[in-house]
Write a structure and sequence with these properties.
Layout lengths: L8 H15 L9 E7 L3 E3 L2 E7 L7 E5 L6 E2 L2 E2 L2 E5 L10 E4 L2 E7 L5 E7 L3 H5 E6 L7 E8 L4 E5 L7 E5 L2 E7 L2 E10 L2 E6 L13 E5 L6 E5 L33 E6 L7
Antiparallel strand pairs: 1-10, 2-3, 3-4, 4-7, 5-6, 5-8, 8-9, 9-10, 11-20, 12-15, 12-19, 13-14, 15-16, 16-17, 17-18
Length: 274
């Protein structure tokens, strides 16, 4: 076990990298997602049994119709007829077990729509996963920055699959810093208890994944924050086409190369997995 009090940054980085490769192959890791299917009418879902339908407007989740032979369990109960699967936006989200290491849950979208996400712990992507290609640890991209709150602010974000449409995402504030004589003010969006920076740089689409990368940070009480770009990670859509990732806003697009953090997802033969 690495002693975080005495370990060199390079050692901590190596331990972090090993954890990242373990996380993405978990039963609900990025590589396990095999389908995200929006349900706006009664319909089958690719890869799993049952018939799925939307609920009346204002209700969270989906309705599934199945027989006992389909072996679908919702919240631990075998479905033989109909069952309601509450969405992730509900007070108690529903859980679906299809058996054989396949499970699912329901996510909420814009305008009251819902989709079923299906995860396979033995997906083709997990079987073919060779690793995450990364830059060597680069101390030049560990930057001291300042967080400035912007209460009530939002910012329009495009997403990979939204065909140019934008979604207003909560922007708790901006993160500013100076590097090599250039001042930057990055938009930070909310991600649980952390802040998320969706960014691109001159390596994007060249030596790194074309959509961009994510960096998660947490300012201290005084607004000080360390931007360690060595911990820049690939977005979920780099691991599975079933994700729909946000694209970097204009102010988060660097003209310089940030040669730190993750680069691409690799297959076992060393080629790009996606």
């Amino acid at each position: 076990m690495t002693d975080t009090q005495t370990a060199a940054p390079e050692e901590l980085h190596a331990a972090y990298r090993a954890r990242r490769e373990q996380v993405v192959v978990q039963p609900l890791g990025n590589l396990a997602l095999v389908n995200t299917q929006w349900v706006d009418t009664e319909q089958p879902i690719w890869g799993v049994p049952g018939t799925w339908a939307p609920l009346p407007a204002g209700e969270s989740g989906l309705r599934v119709t199945a027989t006992a032979a389909d072996n679908i369990r919702v919240d631990g109960e075998l479905v033989d007829g109909e069952a309601i699967v509450a969405g992730k936006d509900a007070e108690k989200p529903g859980e679906i077990d299809f058996g054989g290491g396949v499970q699912g849950f329901v996510i909420a979208g814009a305008e009251g729509t819902y989709a079923l996400r299906v995860w396979d712990s033995n997906s083709e992507a997990i079987q073919n996963f060779g690793g995450i290609d990364t830059f060597d640890y680069n101390p030049d991209w560990v930057v001291q920055a300042k967080f400035t709150p912007l209460p009530g602010a939002t910012l329009p974000f495009e997403h990979v699959k939204d065909e140019g449409k934008t979604r207003e995402l909560e922007m708790p504030g901006e993160i500013s810093f100076e590097k090599d004589g250039v001042e930057y003010r990055l938009a930070a969006i909310k991600s649980g208890r952390a802040l998320q920076i969706v960014f691109a740089d001159s390596t994007s689409g060249d030596s790194t994944y074309s959509v961009g990368r994510f960096l998660f940070v947490a300012p201290d009480a005084e607004g000080n924050v360390v931007l360690d770009f060595n911990r820049a990670v690939l977005p979920p859509c780099a691991f599975s086409y079933a994700f729909n990732c946000p694209l970097p806003p204009k102010q988060n697009r660097f003209s310089v190369a940030i040669e730190a953090g993750e680069k691409n997802v690799l297959a076992k033969d060393g080629s790009l997995l996606h």
